Amino acid sequence: MVQSGTHLGVRRVAKALTITVVLCFVMVAVGMVHAPASASQNQEFMPLSELRPGMKGIGKTVLEGTRIDTFDVEILGILKGESATGDLVLVRVGGKPVEAAGGIAAGMSGSPVYVNGRLVGAIAFGYESADHFVGLVTPIEEMLKVFASAKRPVPKVAYLSTPVQVGDRLAEKVVFASSVDDAARVRREASDGTLVMVPVATPVMVSGASMRAFDELARKLKAFGLMPVRSGGGGWGDGLGATAGSGEPAGAGGAAGEAATAATAAGTAQDAQAGADLQPGSCIGAQLVRGDVSVTAIGTVTYRQGNEVLALGHPLLGRGNASYFATGAEVHLVVMGDVMPFKVASPLGLAGTIVQDRTHGILVDVGKKPPSIPVTVTVRDHDTGVTQMLRADIVRDDVLSTDLVGVFALSCLDATVDRIGPGTSRVSFQVEGKGLPKPIVRDNMFYSGSDVSAESIGELCEAVATVIENEFANVEVTAVKAEFDVEEARRTARIHSAEATTKLVKPGETLEVRVRLVPFRGIAETKVIKIGIPADTPPGTLYLTVRGGGVPPADQESGDTGPAPKPSQPTLAESLENLVNEFMSREKNCDIVVEFYPGEASFGEDAVPVGGQAATGKPAGYSGSSRAVSEDPPRAEEKTQRTLTGAVGEKGPGLVKATLTTGYVIEGETTVEVEVEDTEAQGEGDGAATPLEGSEGSAAPDGGGAP
Asked: What are the backbone angles phi and psi of residue 517, rounded to the nearest 5°?
């Protein structure tokens, strides 16, 4: 369903005369080694000094398909800015094509305007909720300057050389507001002859994204003045699509491989044609995601010289040096929106790379393939048996890449699982990068009682953000691969109790801890975890915390089910290699963790053991015994139990910890208490570990400290 533009949430005053930026693409050939001469020196361009009110000319744009239509333009006046760089041209457009479209539409920004066959500039502004046939042109001389010098801000006030009748008002000046909210304030304070101008969103065509992924993307892109619109059309020009059902990627071999090769050849030809088709007035796309999900902003070509093209008399994201996909585009129709008309279009072949994103435009290097992040996501729904492998190329951008990976992954999950609800997932992923000491590899489990898909993507996004935002080195992410296995069943287990197999333990020995798990609506199990007692552990009571390795799901804490990455955990890493190792070795949601600080209680004042109260000195529910006692009566399903054994150990700065990975998302926490013997007082050979009554045996010394 095409969006009407109402999702921008702007409350407008009926009689307010607001002029808005039509942030679509304006392309002009500048920034070259031998830049064109100034507009006043080049007969190809018409400088402002030669323009007069009443002059007539033409404009060019695409309103349907790829055909370039011509429309009429009349010069109404010159808006003089506060500085020599801020002048704009006030124009009125007409003619059958633009009248049928309802006037200046979002997506027309960049449409070249000619007078006497000479380029004046590009349409870049239009009236919001008023006369859509009146707009502003960014002069070509301003656009030619922007790549040869520092970017200059748009002036806050511009004055008409001669007052112009616009609607029922005689306009003398234009005030530029920073936002729609700011514009409302300016309108209240402005005089009758003042027009208020605010940025309006560039139309961004989004296809392949799920509804809520689209909503999340819209929320993020609106901060850049972009207006996402749901549309059809693919994003691949090179045959790099995905296969559904088999999980086999295109190009895997045999018939599939032959088909992929043919598609790649066809895509290469399409890309070459797209680059050749970028001519003044043609439709152009700036693509952020290209593949099974496509995110493409739409605009119009203004000027081309050789293989360099300038677009968008305003920024796309304002990044300066940039690396976005530049594509051809096909217009399906122009929709009459509440704010102003806007084009609905689809991207065509890859035409080149957007290499500059500045205040007055974007510069395209035609034929250059941009670096990007190939992302492959495989989703298996174990309830329906559906498997899909989906792929996309995502722009490398320090601000947007992480969010775009999350939006793409969520769309893949929604497309395959086809529901929003509870469930368990096992997620494995690999993030590769140029400059990384090794890929980040991770395998974890997640459970959510409300939205398993959204819960499953947080750690993947965090890994991408960790690489992009690391403080040690500039790393280019070169590939992201993720696999999601999802089922509706709840695979969680609660820590019911824990006990040590000995009452007394010597420094240097290995202690066994038996942890009783109760799976959700399942049979109780016992896991045995071995943890080394360091040789320098002082004598006395030792408190060991037994807990699940993960944190509570985000939806249980804040209700947030969006694909935003979870905040990165604090790090003490002193190098990129340390950072990668730290991320990969962090606890998993499916881990049982046993940990303690030698000589100190391993729980804080707020810790609450299973069935106990807040701990103060010793946890509630304990009487000097090493057995963790639950105050709750046993469940019926706990009458039978299985015993499984395994162990892993590590020693951090003052912390001794052992983990055991299970097939459940582990919930709950408890504490185990043991006594560390004073071996010096007893002498060597005295004080063997004392088994607990009913335990299966004692831990054998390992002859050293913690493993």
From this structure: -105, 145
Q: Are residues 268 and 197 in the same domain?
A: no
Residues pairing with 298 in the sheet: 285
What gap in Å lies between CA 133 and CA 104, rounded to an integer? 6
Residue 572 lies in a domain: no
The token pair that represents 684 in the structure block: 């060597």
d(CA 409, CA 428): 13
* Residue in 144, 160, 162 with CA at minimum distance from that of residue 152: 144
Same domain, 191 and 226: no
Cα–Cα distance, 446 to 426 (Å, whole number): 6
**534 and 678 share one domain:** yes
Q: Which residues of 416-433 are buried (b: 16+ CB within 10 A; e: fewer)?
A: bbebbebbbbbbebbbbb
Please compute the mean of the pLDDT values over residues 435-447 and round it to a whole number.
Answer: 97
* In a shared domain, residues 356 and 399: no
Residue 699 in any domain: the answer is no
Does 600 have pLDDT greater than 60?
Answer: no
Alpha-carbon distance values, 278 to 1, 107, 595 (Å): 29, 15, 63
Angle, to 10 degrees, between the axis of helix 458-468 and the axis of helix 401-417?
A: 160
Is the same domain home to 393 and 449? Answer: yes
Q: What is the pLDDT of residues 514-557, one digit of tens each?
A: 999 999 999 999 999 999 999 999 999 999 999 999 844 344 44
Task: Please tell me the distance from the alpha carbon of residue 344 to that of residue 380, in angstroms, as a whole number.
Answer: 33
Cα separations in angstroms, 284 against 2, 277, 295, 364, 385: 20, 9, 13, 10, 40
Q: Return the closest-CA partner of residue 407 out of 517, 288, 501.
A: 288
CA–CA gap between residue 498 and residue 602 (Å, rounded): 15
pLDDT in tens, 238-273: 433 333 333 343 333 444 445 444 444 555 667 777
What gap in Å lies between CA 176 and CA 185, rounded to an integer?
A: 12
Alpha-carbon radius of gyration of the chain: 32
- Cα distance between residue 385 and residue 379, in whole Å: 10
In a domain, 60, yes or no: yes
- Give the end of a domain, one of 467, 487, 507: 487
Residues 157-206 have pLDDT tens digits of 656 666 666 656 666 666 655 555 555 566 666 666 666 655 445 789 99
Nearest CA to 550 among 586, 497, 601? 586
Q: Of the candidates 363, 398, 22, which has an alpha carbon nearest to the alpha carbon of residue 225?
A: 22
Q: In what order do the strands lie in the sheet with 665-667?
A: 641-645, 524-532, 510-519, 492-500, 665-667
Residues 85 and 233 in one domain: no
Tell which phi-psi region holds residue 702, choosing left (phi > 0), alpha (psi between -120 and 50) or beta.
Answer: alpha
Q: Are 25 and 133 in contact (CB under 8 A)?
A: no
Look at residues 459, 487, 515 and tell me which one is the last residue of a structural domain.
487
Contacts of 521 (CB under 8 A, 6+ apart): 490, 637
* Helices within 118-207 (DSSP H only): 140-146, 180-189
566 in a structural domain? no
3-state secondary structure 317-356: CCCEEEEEEEEEEEEEEEECCCCCCEEEEEEEEEEEEEEE
Report DSSP state, residue 282: -
Do both 196 and 228 map to the same domain? no
Range of 503's domain?
Answer: 492-550+587-682
d(C-alpha 125, C-alpha 134), whole Å: 9
Separation between Cα atoms, residue 387 and residue 75, nearest integer Å: 59
Q: Assess whether 516 and 646 both reside in one domain.
A: yes
Task: Decide: 688 and 503 in contact? Cβ < 8 Å.
Answer: no
Q: Are the C-beta atoms of residues 466 and 460 closer than 8 Å to each other?
A: no
**Whole-prediction pTM:** 0.75
End-to-end CA distance of the chain: 60
Instruction: Give the span between the Cα atoms of 700 and 275, in whole angstroms.
Output: 73
Q: Residue 235 is encoded by which pair of tokens?
A: 């994003």
Query: Which token pair is 555?
Result: 């939806």
